[in-house]
Amino acid sequence: MTKEPILDVAQLAHFEIYSPKLEESVGFFKNILGMDEVGRKGNSVYMRAYEDHYHNTLIITENDEAGLGHVAWRATSPQALERRVAAIEKSGRGIGWIDGDIGHGRAYQFTTPDGHKMEILWDVDYYEAPEDQKTPLLNRPQKRPSRGVPVRRLDHINVLASETKKNVEFLEEVLGFKVRERILADDNSDVAAWLSVSSLVHDIALMTDALGESGRLHHICYWYGFPQHLSDVADLLIESGYEIEAGPGKHGVTQAAFLYVVEPGGNRVELFGDPGYQIFDPAWKTIEWKGKDLEKAIIWHGSNLPQEFFKYGTPVKSDVLV
């Protein structure tokens, strides 16, 4: 008998990354990707893209090394939040409640089996643009910035896991994520999986850590919506002294146009030139890539990804360099 779907998690709300070069990281997101700084607290800077409706979607916190601070998910209701908290506590992965932070109210924190810190919340602050940033396009929170090549909204996060299957099962069984696509090894074990709670192909992806480490970050992603912007930002990146790791190109998995670059603090950032495809079928059957099909899974067109792409994550390990 098919289990009733869990519909208690609505979307990715924000993520926090660590940076040993705080101001340089802030400058990258502000001047290259056109994001706005909307607050500071302690050693953290809060930022947003111009079509993010919430107060902030990115937190950059100064730290000795790069990596993931936490990932935040918004529940579908206050009642849904309580249900998921009960399920998380039952799983033994709970940390506990926090009062809130800039941009949101109380949140319950927990970890994945691999140690990635996450939180789930309901109460959020919506962005209110100052008068000089208001736009007559009423369904856009603010004017399009005039610096860099501005990203429009957050899209997803990709984390590395020592054991992909265990983490996928946690997201499915405790939080209600659906596996949209996956890459399987010859023995049918999970190599990577793309999961979502929304119509996006993935709100989160997990890849098996090639170094066997736990709890590392592979990349965060922001969305353009237009493939041309990948070419535009590529020019800006190169002229500003940044090295593009891969792209522009197109993935087979997700069908998304992409570009990858490492920001000054050391974290990998993916930029999506279009949304790939969206899923509206409630009975969606997971797409499985294996064997000969893998040739087109990662790269549909464009140059192959460098070997460092599959090994480099943050925190950085000394034997793997970009």
Automatic annotation (TrEMBL):
Q: Please state the Enzyme Commission number of this protein.
A: 1.13.11.2
Q: Which cofactor does it need?
A: Fe(2+)
Give this protein's Gene Ontology molecular function annotations: catechol 2,3-dioxygenase activity; ferrous iron binding
What keyword terms does UniProt attach to this protein? Aromatic hydrocarbons catabolism, Dioxygenase, Iron, Metal-binding, Oxidoreductase, Repeat
Looking up Gene3D superfamilies in the UniProt record yields: 2,3-Dihydroxybiphenyl 1,2-Dioxygenase, domain 1 (3.10.180.10)
Enzymatic reactions: catechol + O2 = (2Z,4E)-2-hydroxy-6-oxohexa-2,4-dienoate + H(+)
In terms of InterPro entries, this protein maps to: Catechol_2-3_dOase, Fosfomycin_Res_Enzymes, Glyas_Bleomycin-R_OHBP_Dase, Glyas_Fos-R_dOase_dom, VOC_core, Xdiol_ring_cleave_dOase_1/2
Superkingdom: Bacteria
Q: Which SUPFAM superfamilies match?
A: Glyoxalase/Bleomycin resistance protein/Dihydroxybiphenyl dioxygenase
Every VOC domain range: 11-123, 153-274
Q: Name one Pfam family in it.
A: Glyoxalase
Q: Which family does it belong to?
A: Belongs to the extradiol ring-cleavage dioxygenase family.
Name of the featured protein: Metapyrocatechase
